[in-house]
Write a structure and sequence with these properties.
The protein is an alpha/beta fold and about 325 residues long. It contains 13 helices and 14 strands. The chain has one domain: Rossmann fold (3-Layer(aba) Sandwich), CATH 3.40.50.10680.
Length: about 325
């Protein structure tokens, strides 16, 4: 790492898996060194509220407020509103805890008052005491839809309401063509002080692709002098969290770490895989991508910090 006092690191994150590495990075770096950009194609409007699941998962995780057992939501949550909503015949398939609702109410209020999603996220993070920079991939709405055997489903309907049960055929991102990347994201990608872009171990199809496919982002990544490092979300043929492995199987992709490396292709300078997948090193190298192995399963805070330090050492 050259002149770590001047380094800037950009992390691209989805929800639970990405948030774990983002937390590790936040604990081993100075706050002004780290910028985290979260996927917002999972955002949706529910019960009149603007909900940003990935942003909130990262925000709650960095603030030490997340429910570590389930990976999403707040620790110590209560569910009185949801019980009352059920009694009134309202929709309860998307579980909103009582304290979590305050976040969505406040976000919806601030957006209605004319603030951008970036400005709202900054304000919420400040109120929760975060010093790291967390921002949405775009201030414009992008919405993931999943093409399934049951037809097209909005992402949260597929992911939460249907519990990922329908077989996947593909994905589309509505609003992507007209959405502008976060200006701060493009500015950072064009800044020579940026030393690395870390693609966290998030779902490549529905968490990372929406960020990469924003107009100009992949091109800026390829032009950037920063090293692009991805951490595999697949370990020993399984996804640690979420439906990535199921999606790969249904898309006729081998459920292996090297399949993820091949999917990202020439965007990567380095691919980090779990030590249990060491037999895949040569196949990844044959793709023209450098590879490094280390324990990547993040069960403890020490695991998160270890992986963060390891990735930073590769820069």
């Amino acid at each position: 790492m050259n002149n770590p006092a001047q380094r800037k690191i950009l992390a691209l994150s989805g929800g639970v898996g990405g948030a774990k590495l983002a937390l590790g990075l936040s604990r081993v770096m100075a706050a002004n060194e780290l910028t985290i950009v979260a996927n917002t194609a999972d955002d949706f409007e529910h019960l009149g509220l603007h909900i940003s699941p990935d942003l909130d998962t990262v925000m709650y995780t960095l603030a030490g407020l997340n429910n570590q057992e389930q990976g999403w939501g707040l620790a110590g949550e209560t569910w009185s509103m949801l019980a009352a909503m059920k009694q009134l015949g309202g929709e309860t398939w998307f579980r909103l805890g009582d304290r979590d609702i305050a976040t969505h109410l406040r976000r919806t209020e601030l957006l209605a008052n004319g603030k951008t999603l970036t400005e709202v996220t900054t304000e919420l993070c400040q109120q929760l005491g975060l010093s790291q920079t967390l921002m949405p991939m775009s201030d414009d709405p992008v919405r993931t839809f999943v093409d399934t055997e049951q037809g097209e489903l909005a992402f949260q309907h597929y992911f939460v309401r249907e519990q990922c049960a329908p077989a996947v055929r593909g994905f589309s991102f509505k609003g992507l063509e007209s959405a502008s990347p976060n200006p701060a994201l493009l500015k950072l990608l064009n800044d020579d002080i940026l030393q690395a872009v870390i693609i966290c171990p998030s779902n490549p199809f529905v968490s990372v692709d929406p960020i990469l496919k924003l107009t100009g982002v992949t091109e800026a990544l390829k032009r950037s002098k920063a090293k692009v490092i991805a951490v595999s979300p697949i370990v020993s043929g399984m996804a640690i969290k979420g439906p990535a492995a199921k999606m790969m199987k249904e898309l006729s992709m081998p459920v292996t770490a090297d399949s993820v490396a091949q999917y990202y292709g020439d965007l990567l300078d380095l691919f980090v895989i779990d030590e249990s997948d060491a037999t895949l090193v040569e196949s990844i190298k044959q793709m023209g991508v450098a590879v490094a192995t280390t324990p990547t399963v993040m069960k403890t805070i020490e695991d998160r910090e270890h992986l963060a330090r390891f990735v930073l050492e590769q820069v």
